[in-house]
Fold this sequence. Notes:
Elements: E1 2-6, E2 11-12, E3 15-18, H1 21-29, E4 37-42, E5 47-56, E6 61-70, E7 77-84, H2 90-101, E8 105-110, H3 123-142, E9 150-151, E10 155-156, H4 157-167, E11 170-174, H5 183-189, E12 195-201, H6 209-217, E13 221-223, H7 235-248
Parallel strand pairs: 1-4, 7-8, 7-12, 8-9, 8-10, 11-12, 11-13
Antiparallel strand pairs: 2-3, 3-6, 4-5, 5-6
Helix pairs in contact: 2-3, 2-7
Amino acid sequence: MLHIFTEPAALSGDTLSITGPDVNHIRNVLRLQPGDMVSARVNGDRQEYLCRITEMGREEVLCRVEEVRQADTELPAQIYLFQGLPKGDKMEWIIQKSVELGVTEIIPVQMERSIVRLDKGSAKTDKKIQRWQTIAENAAQQSRRSILPTVHSPMSFKEALDYGAQMAQQRYIPYENQQDDGSFRQELLDLQPGAGIAVYIGPEGGISLTELEEARQAGVRPVSLGRRILRTETAPLVFLSWLVLAFEIG
Length: 250
């Protein structure tokens, strides 16, 4: 069943009005017809609206709401991924998979060892952020999220540390030389619903010692993700998978 996000104004009583790019997707890609069902959510609303298509127009699809049920697809925490800018299309992969795993916000970070450089406010950067946001929205629809995760404009490492301190009580920075004494595993298992959790992932070259020390001084805890050195596109998915395990499984 197609899952879409909509604005509150699109719902009027038991009628849902679908406009914009979703109309083309419904008509020409999925070739849905009157009588077919779609699932809709208002961004941030924990309710899911199951709707039957009643009318198909060129610019609007009308649906009748047949069932409203509580959606339970969000982790009980706000997860902030600070991702050191990687090369190529790795960021697209990271965004897609981290959204599927429950991230709340994704913040690209210009780090000391980042090869890619993005100028904040430039037309090129704005276009890239728009593409990344579209990828996040598509992944949120596919995984039936209740919210649309936000992809931010790039931040400096200092800006990222400051923003993380504002938004998250628990903040972690995976580091390949960090010794594992078992306390991080227990800390994850002890996390309480409602927590704000931030993780800082280095680019291909990893976290520099200067950045590691700056993070420590800002209250960010260095942690180990295991005995193997992970790629920049693998590390955030491992961390997020551990959060899924801590909050949802067992």
